[in-house]
Amino acid sequence: MTALLDHFHEAVNTPDDVDKLKKLILQLAMQGKLVEQDPNDEPASELLKWIEEEVQVKQTKNTKKLTAVSEESAPYSIPKEWKWVRFGEVCQVVGGSQPPKSKFVEDPLEGYIRLLQIRDFSSDNYKVYVPLSKKTNLCNQDDILIGRYGASVGKICSGKSGTFNVALMKCELPKLIDKQWFKFLLESPYMQLFFGGQTRSAQAGFNQGELYPYPIPLPPLKEQRRIVEKISILFSQCEELINNMRNEKSHNHMLNKSVFTRLQHHANVEQMKDLRFVIEHIEHLCNDKESIAQLRNSILSLAIQGKLVEQDANEEPASALVAKIKEEKERLLAEKKIKNEKPLPLITQEEIPFVLPEGWLWVRLGSLSKVIEYGTSQKASEVNIGVPVLRMNNIKEGQIIFQNLKYIELSNKDLPRLFLKHGNILFNRTNSYELVGKSGCFLGEDDSYSFASYLIRIGLFTDSLSPEYINYYLNSPTCRNTQIEPFITQQNGQANYNGTKLKNILIPLPPYEEQIRIIRLLNRLYGVCDNLDRKLVIQTMKNDSLMDSITFYNT
After folding, report:
1. Global pTM?
2. Rounded to whole angstroms, how far apart are CA atoms 25 and 17?
3. Element (H, E) at 388
4. β-strands 450-451, 387-390 pairing
5. Is residue 195 assigned to a domain?
6. Which range scores top for mean pLDDT: 251-265, 440-454, 535-549?
7. CB 393 within 8 A of CB 404
8. Of 220, 227, 337, 371, which residue has the fewest beta carbons closer than 10 angstroms?
9. CA gap 117, 273 in Å, rounded
10. 255, pLDDT greater than 80
11. Exposed, middle or buried, 88 (CB in 10 Å: 0-12/13-18/19+)?
12. So what's the pLDDT on residue 399?
């Protein structure tokens, strides 16, 4: 154990690890395993005799006689110089009071005293003062208070003076108990198990009758002080470790932000060189979820600007694709297979987010689509009664997830019209602000799924377009920042984006062959990001497992 404590900075990697380590330190301290015992120390049995003389004076007639802790009932083994005692043998608790709110004042007045509540130990923004009387229970800065109700049950507080409300109990300790050691005891996993394991509801809290019989380990007084000194040193190192983690994270964040901002900037003429630099140093630059997400965005930014793959002057330009689509649209209109719609507005220079390479073209999404329509509003069942219906929750991170499905009958009046086709894009039109506008590309079989009314289906002319490319673009930060977020409306706590706005979204359209090359490279690079994500998850699990194993082994 000594080796671990001497080198614990090598075993922890996250603030959560540090929290676990601090709990382990407290638990070891309360087991007599943190500092060495000194045979010259007066044993706890003698200490208890002195304490009993002092506490006896303060006990009331109503205090029940507490029975000794037998060897058989001891919760765990402790050093021979220690002794198991009842909580009430070494500590009396005093409850607070709850003056009526009508007597609260916000400013200190003569004859008034500050009323301490749980929230006051994390913030001084809510100070209140109440009249001081002879019956008022007081506390000093070095007194220990215990939260006894609600979510704060077992919270250990100190450092403020005044009076205290009914949600707090004050610990009154004999002079021969080190206050800081007792505070560490209360914060230890062993005591927190008591506070968190009461059979009564958290709102009901706990009382003296439940607390006083609880067995606690008592070390010799000199060892209490050695324990306090050791814990203070180790906790100081823990805080230093957390500060180092924060500084390192801040440094990495600034470095990554600088690299990824440069990489995504449309005026950067050396983007491909910068991307190669990122890929070569990916393990160092992408060491958390945020930096991996930045890498994805940077790669996508290059792709939609025409800077991820090289252009080929021999390929049919995007303008020719648009002409073919227009021709096909006119044929379908003549055959009454699609509806005639209002002409889309011309694209102005002010709308264009960035300059495109030769052969690319800015077009509106509506001009590339056979259909843009809402899904079925028919109530779906959790029972498999026929056709699965994709909903808002099935769109995650640019993909369609086939989980938690609901179903409609095959005889539903919206079918077969609202059957999905391979290559259809589903767009989330109503959701929270963060999720509205997210889309996924359906790559399943034709006529096997339908979709709900909060989604919009985009049916593209797939002979001339890659639906996956369009879907990647719709999920890009550029599209979200310039085409989606400025036009989101809020209604009844929900964000909304309608089909008309969707048709007007600007798309940077490359030649068809380049679309395919972009998708292939994007998929490969996103695969690298996925592997980084998996490695991060595995490493986190390993770290958690290591800390849990260390904690379990040493408790």
Report:
1. 0.61
2. 12
3. strand 387-390
4. parallel
5. no
6. 440-454
7. yes
8. 337
9. 59
10. no
11. buried
12. 94
Task: Tell me the one-letter amino acid at 347.
Answer: I
Query: What DSSP letter does each residue of 87-144 carry, written as one string?
Result: HHHH-EEEE-----GGG-BSS--TTEEEEE-GGGGT-STT--EEE--TT--EE-TT-E
Instruction: Tell me which amino acid residue 338 is.
Output: I
Task: Report residue 380 as tokens.
Answer: 């779906």
User: E strands, 110-262, where?
Assistant: 112-116, 129-131, 138-139, 144-147, 156-157, 162-164, 168-172, 215-218
Query: How does strand 425-428 pair with strand 215-218?
Result: unpaired
Residue 130 falls inside a structural domain: yes
In-domain check, residue 481:
yes
Q: What tokens were used for 72? A: 């058989």
Please give the average per-residue pLDDT across 296-306, as a whole number.
Answer: 88
pLDDT, residue 279, reads 58
Read off the tokens for 397.
């991170």
Torsion of CA 256, 257, 259, 263, to 10 degrees: 130
* DSSP element (H, E) containing 491: strand 489-491
The verdict on residue 356 lying in a domain is: yes
Residue at which a domain ends, from 138, 172, 206: 172
Q: Are 392 and 431 in contact (CB under 8 A)?
A: yes
The CATH number of the domain holding residue 378 is 3.90.220.20
> What is the Cα–Cα distance from 282 to 275, expressed in whole angstroms?
10
Report pLDDT for 57. 47
Reported residue count of the chain is 555
Q: Confirm if 477 and 297 have CB atoms less than 8 A apart.
A: yes
529: which residues sit within 8 A by CB, 6+ positions away?
Answer: 286, 292, 295, 296, 299
Q: Find the range with the poorest average confidence among 110-114, 265-269, 322-326, 363-367.
A: 265-269
- Residue that is last in its domain, among 126, 145, 172: 172
Spatial distance between the Cα atoms of 471 and 242, rounded to a whole number of angstroms: 41
- Residue position matching structure tokens 């292939």: 520
